[in-house]
């Protein structure tokens, strides 16, 4: 909805706006993002451009259109003239055209800050040498964990990876078919042999 969130858009208008924003976002994910990555090397790992960027432009344009079509007397008649902006319109201190201009100015200022800031950041990253670029794709190094402080972050990562692997193997190997029960796997270390299920039953190394 953007800047039109506090304006009268009617239910059908809200549905149209949501459909347009969803279509633009999906188009960005499915078609535009892979091409931006291939053409200019834009690594949008979190999909910020598709989720916030393009739908944000849609919301800004909706704000322009709704403002241009608004009538101050409609808002006053329905009790929505509660802002100083619409009071100024009613007293002729501000015009609808002026409000539309403010909407356009705000949209272009936001786009300018985003584009210029992104270009400056990209140039800075190209000029300043970065030794280990892969560390910027993970945030585990930014967390201070007591175990990691004692044994070192690399060793901790190795042990954590091995633990996750062992747990996955244990769950996979301990899974047997059940009949009408909910299985809760018991904490049996993967290094120990799993007990065999009783003959003629579906009971295994689990607690029901």
UniProtKB/TrEMBL annotation:
Superkingdom of origin: Eukaryota
Subcellular locations according to the entry: Membrane
Keyword Oxidoreductase attached: no
Coiled-coil positions: none
An annotated Gene Ontology molecular function: ammonium channel activity
Keywords noted in UniProt: Membrane, Transmembrane, Transmembrane helix
Protein name: Ammonium transporter, putative
The keyword Transmembrane appears for this protein: yes
One record GO biological process: ammonium homeostasis
Residue spans crossing the bilayer: 12-32, 53-70, 104-125
One GO CC term on file: plasma membrane
Ranges for domain Ammonium transporter AmtB-like: 3-126
